[in-house]
Task: structure prediction
Amino acid sequence: MSKYVDGKKQAVVVRLKKGPAIASAATIKPTANVFHVTGGVAIQTINGDSLGAGAVIMMIFDGVCTVKNGTVLLLAGGLDFTSGSEDTLTLVYDGTKWREVSRALLS
Result:
């Protein structure tokens, strides 16, 4: 990402807040932007109330877990995401829905 200062392009550093690990569940409620996901229960929705619209989250998976595509979680290709250990899924929240930004399959 970059911005212009006095007509010159400058790099912008974005710092995301790391939070505690979250156990997978049908609904998870992150309190920070970057966190590990533990457990294998399918994630069907994410409560973004504590982060607010415009929030970006990166989930780092400690093992196999499925994130279900649906009306609130809009994933690439309309397909569920099944992780492996160390895989990541990055989403952005518009205040109503989470949309996939990227994924990294590291397992």
Q: What stands out?
A: The CA atoms of residues 56 and 65 lie 20 Å apart. The chain has a mean pLDDT of 93. The longest strand covers residues 98-104. The radius of gyration is 15 Å.
